[in-house]
Amino acid sequence: MTAVDADARRAAVPDPASVPAPVPAPVPAPDPQVGPASVLRLHPLTRTPQGDRVVVGRTDTGRFVAIPAVGAQALDLLEAGRTVEEVERAVTPADATEPVDVLGFARSLVRLGFVAAVDDARTGDAAAPAARGFVVAPRARARWLFSRAGAAFAGACAVAVVVMLVAVPDVRPHALDVFFLRTPAESLAALTVVTYVLAGVHELAHVMGAAALGVPARLRITRRLYFLTFETNLTGLWALPPRRRVGPLVAGMAFDAIVLAVVMGLRVAGIGPDALWAAIALVELAAIVSQFFVFLRSDVYAVMTALLGCTHLQRTTRLLLRRTFWRLTPDERDTLAASPARDLAVARWYRFVHVGGLLLATWFFVVLFLPSTWHLLTWMRDSLMSAGPTTWTFWEALVLGVLLLSPRLLTAVVAARDVVDRRRTTRARTR
């Protein structure tokens, strides 16, 4: 027996984005009730093969789930106007010991907001977006930027960067390039603002790349572990074949490569403020390298999962690791058992990458992150206490301190928000 209901509830498809967020658990709608004789009228749904599953969803709400082949077959029959009972008889194999749970599957479709009406009764219509953030659905502008010519230009810039790094040692980024102003505090504060701007345009590149394919995006501020992250939710890309998703997913890195090539080229030519270009080059090189930290669900992770045919690799990996070191709950065992075969195959080797990344992040947190945060707090305290509020030194230290600490403060706010969201979700599920 195949319980398509279990897959529809548990196989929520992750966001194919650089700094993606999982789709929250849908909130059940109390009415209307679905019974064996019910006929469902579905919203327009997309269907995209992904490994041994089919990704089904609504592009207008950005909610997608991965279901097995029997679920896709049941969905087609329900969409054709067959009753739940008729569909159950049609999809249940003749040699099955018990019927496929189409009734549970149909009820899960209502909870997901995929059903417009049950018989003659309209549903609550979960048309509101499923994820937090600002909806951005711009017109498709400058499509040539995301054409083959645009991709070739970005690729040429990436090659030029590598050539300059190898052939011109003087323009190679150095850790001390961050100190390009009068004092270290001024340099780091200014670089924080520059990083915010570059990260914002990086995400805008994702948005524009998706818009060129007619896919809306959702922007928000989130975190990966203790790192502040600007996120572009491109869940709507699941309506497209895997290879067509790659362009919007790598658009941010393409922007980084172009900026890096330009500032390094200006340094080679001796044009403009060399110290500023060096600082920007260091920021952009770090941004590109960080995208290869796949354990943080980066751009490279999103491309990797799309091309490998995975639907929920991160969740499957965590469950495999939890099973290795702890005992799974009954729900977790069922979720792991329902995981797509492709996810399980990839997770068997990806889990070592995941663990290695977590160990590296732990080392960075203990050795660098905590000491630097304490140093910033100490410097800010000493600067403020040594000067009165009527002096320029006091206000300079206050402004610089707030800028320097802003990534950490925002990360703490996001972490608190995540805790509140998890508690709300837990309470909603227990009702």
UniProtKB/TrEMBL annotation:
Transmembrane segments: 149-168, 188-215, 249-269, 275-296, 352-374, 394-416
Pro residues bias: start-end ranges: 17-30
Keyword Membrane recorded: yes
Renumbered residue ranges of the record's region Disordered: 1-30
Keywords: Membrane, Transmembrane, Transmembrane helix
Biased composition regions of type Basic and acidic residues, renumbered to the chain: 1-12
Superkingdom, natural source: Bacteria
Record keyword Cell cycle present: no
Protein name: Uncharacterized protein
Source lineage: Bacteria, Bacillati, Actinomycetota, Actinomycetes, Micrococcales
